[in-house]
């Protein structure tokens, strides 16, 4: 039986207190001190559940529906992980800026929070084989922003701890960034007109624009094409080997294409194709 019910307020409060005890919520990539031992596969099996960090507000990848149940593309993989282990999946909502801290502090066993692989992040976590391709996109009212140069005198909304923040900080310091902790807050700011555009993964802005009339993705691919992959705590060789073995098995079953059709296609419709996003074999350029 899958555990997909939203965590109680008490549980979230305990997590918040735990983060304070560790010195507060750090920016993504910040090194933290673990609050407990990394659990072995055997310990996870004996406990009857694996704790997985996911987004709770990033539809259609990881989100909670009106019943308080976790849904999305990342959740499909999380369910497959739990099934392979013979345990229940316990999902913990994380934010982009603090998801690495949750992993490093052993508050979760595995991170499936639509996590883009970068060299900087490889220094903080170990990535398993990827399951999606991604670049950055820019969404704006009526898709009026069609080139980065148009943002020179405008405000761009981003979420903290994302590849969008890193990309624009490094490559376009002339763009004024308005930063938010949560994706829901960032999209709310765009809807309210507090910024001129928003940038995050193209996979996400394409989906969001479909569900929000009056907005369109004027820049559909920005920066390098990267991969999204599961992450485990640095040095957790046992979990890394397990997840890699499972992902390779799922490649052979065309699992991710099926998951795309079930979780992403209803949102994207004709605006995207599975073959442009899904990974079904180890990439030739995978490090």
Notable features of this structure?
single chain, 287 residues, D-Maltodextrin-Binding Protein, domain 2, five-stranded mixed sheet, 11 helices, 37% helix
Can you describe what's shown?
This protein has 2 domains: 41-131 and 229-275, Periplasmic binding protein-like II (D-Maltodextrin-Binding Protein, domain 2, 3-Layer(aba) Sandwich), CATH 3.40.190.10; 135-225, D-Maltodextrin-Binding Protein, domain 2 (3-Layer(aba) Sandwich). The protein has 11 helices and 13 strands. The protein has helices at residues 9-21, 41-47, 73-85, 99-104, 119-122, 163-171, 183-191, 202-211, 237-252, 255-268, 274-277; strands at 49-54, 57-58, 62-64, 70-71, 88-93, 110-111, 125-127, 132-141, 155-159, 176-180, 197-201, 215-228, 231-233. Strands 10-9-11-8-12 form a 5-stranded mixed β-sheet, with helices on both faces. A 3-stranded parallel β-sheet has the order 5-1-6. A 3-stranded antiparallel β-sheet has the order 2-3-4. The longest helix has 16 residues, at 237-252. The model is unreliable at 1-34 (pLDDT under 50).
How do the strands and helices of this protein lay out in sequence?
Layout: H1 9-21, H2 41-47, E1 49-54, E2 57-58, E3 62-64, E4 70-71, H3 73-85, E5 88-93, H4 99-104, E6 110-111, H5 119-122, E7 125-127, E8 132-141, E9 155-159, H6 163-171, E10 176-180, H7 183-191, E11 197-201, H8 202-211, E12 215-228, E13 231-233, H9 237-252, H10 255-268, H11 274-277
Parallel strand pairs: 1-5, 1-6, 9-10, 9-11
Antiparallel strand pairs: 2-3, 3-4, 7-13, 8-11, 8-12
């Amino acid at each position: 039986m899958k555990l997909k019910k939203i965590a109680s307020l008490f549980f979230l409060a305990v997590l918040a207190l735990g983060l304070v005890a560790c010195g507060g919520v750090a920016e993504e990539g910040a090194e933290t001190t673990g609050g407990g031992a990394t659990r072995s596969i055997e310990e996870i099996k004996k406990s009857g559940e694996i704790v997985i960090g996911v987004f709770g507000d990033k539809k259609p990848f990881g989100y909670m529906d009106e019943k308080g149940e976790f849904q999305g593309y990342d959740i499909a993989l999380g369910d497959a992980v739990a099934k392979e282990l013979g345990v229940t999946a316990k999902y913990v909502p994380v934010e982009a800026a603090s998801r690495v801290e949750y992993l490093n502090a052993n508050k979760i066993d595995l991170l499936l929070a639509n996590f883009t692989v970068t060299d900087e992040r490889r220094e903080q976590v170990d990535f398993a084989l990827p399951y999606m391709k991604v670049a950055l996109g820019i969404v704006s009212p009526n898709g009026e922003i069609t080139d980065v140069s148009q943002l020179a005198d405008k405000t761009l909304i981003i979420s903290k701890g994302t590849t969008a923040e890193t990309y624009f900080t490094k490559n376009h310091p002339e763009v004024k960034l308005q930063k938010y902790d949560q994706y829901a807050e960032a999209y709310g700011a765009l809807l309210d007109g507090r910024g001129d555009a928003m940038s995050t993964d193209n996979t996400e802005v394409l989906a969001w624009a479909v569900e929000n009339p009056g907005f369109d993705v004027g820049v559909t691919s920005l920066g390098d094409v990267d991969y999204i992959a599961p992450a485990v705590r640095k040095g957790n060789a046992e979990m890394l080997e397990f997840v890699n073995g499972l992902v390779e098995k799922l490649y052979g079953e065309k699992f991710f294409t099926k998951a795309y059709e079930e979780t992403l296609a209803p949102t994207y419709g004709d605006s995207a194709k599975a073959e442009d996003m899904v990974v079904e074999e180890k990439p030739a350029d995978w490090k």
